[in-house]
Amino acid sequence: MKKLAIHGGSKIRKSPFPSYDVIDKEEIKEVTRVLKTGILSRFLGVWHKDFYGGPEVQSLEKEWAKYFKVKHAISVNSATSGLISAVGALGIGPGDEVIVTPYSMCISATAPLFYGATPVFADVEPEYFCLDPKSIEKKITKRTKAIIVVNLFGQPYDAEKINKIAKKHNIAIIEDSAQSPGAKYQGKYAGTLGDIGIFSLNYHKHIHSGEGGIVVTNNDEFAERIRLIRNHAEAVVEAKGVENIINMVGFNFRMTEIEAAIARCQLRKLKPLIDKRRKNVVYLTNKLKPIPFLKFPATRLGATHSFYMHPFLFDSKRAGVSRTKFIDAVRAELMPTKRRETEGVKVNFGYVKPIYLMPMFQQKIAFGPKGWPFNKSAQYKKGLCPVVERLHFEEFCSHELMHPNMTKKDLDNVVSAFTKVAENLDELK
Ligand SMILES: *Cc1c(COP(=O)(O)O)cnc(C)c1O
What we know:
Elements: H1 25-37, H2 55-67, E1 72-76, H3 79-89, E2 97-100, H4 107-110, E3 118-121, H5 133-139, E4 144-150, H6 159-169, E5 172-176, E6 184-185, E7 188-189, E8 196-200, E9 213-217, H7 220-230, H8 237-240, H9 257-288, E10 294-295, E11 303-304, E12 310-314, H10 316-319, H11 323-333, E13 347-349, H12 359-362, H13 386-395, E14 396-399, H14 408-423
Parallel strand pairs: 2-3, 2-4, 4-5, 5-8
Antiparallel strand pairs: 1-9, 6-7, 6-11, 8-9, 10-12, 12-14, 13-14
Helix pairs in contact: 1-9, 2-9, 3-7, 9-14, 11-14
Pyridoxal-5'-phosphate binds near residues 80, 104 and 202.
């Protein structure tokens, strides 16, 4: 008799998993308070006291800077706009190159394009999935101006090695920490390890305000240039007496008072939320470790992980079945997560297709029809980064069933599903 749910057997889990709820009474109270003031944003796009925004925005920035032990925190309306403003603040322009990772949300690699710079892809570490320092070194040229490192899935990048390389070549580091608020490396918060760090407050992240982002830096000049880019720089520079007007073409990247009020509540919840994720991951990893064809990657030495996702690697040779078959069978045993039913069971294989394989890079078409701003030597062929291709197309898997609202019983269901499929692999052969 067939046992696996994918073949009509009975499912391990019959009701949806709990939703990831981080919004409660506190946020409702704060939003109501802000609504009653009638001022939902206090930014003015001219040189004026209100150029820096209203009380909620400014309080959030102070609290964020204090929490992360960094000199400046600048709120923006997304990590996407945060990354764009970081590239701008560094004075990067046409002809420059920026080293980026192929394994991330696409903006981590496309942000340089908005200033006419060319993204150059380096490969990732097979065990931690962040940019590999050895690969970075091979990609540095006279034109390299910055590296955009990503603290992927909650794992900090190798700041020790990569910061050294950057220093040696006089290159800036932009640190995309959208997936890693609260992770640490050598005692410092991820996001504060490079020259400019970016956090996301979108709905899918550890803590959120619907949409939103925060940029952090210890550099006064970068901070002020980011504030200018956030808020119509070109209309402000003259009155403010700004002399360096390179990249001072501004946007509206401003956060509202409502989002800032929510984000202030959310920041207070960050630590307990991450502690719970870590505890859940330890529990699951210990229970799943005996499955011989799954490998749960370690956290980098000297780092703490914040587990945006719980990654693992699948060895199809050892298992004797394909990764797709295995993950589909596990999914069939489980159920979706409440409020996110349309996303299906939160167990996946692969992550995003290596970014250089997107049509934009394959055809070198970004702005206009003539291939601007890619430089002629830019390489985006399949095979460019073999580690990321192997991870994405063969080995990499992840799940999100370790979020803080999961109970022990929920976690045990996840363990039972994996174990059941592992014990009945013959059914999949
Ligand atoms: C989510 C995410 C972003 C973009 O964040 P938004 O706030 O949605 O713009 C950037 N980089 C990484 C690694 C992300 O996960």
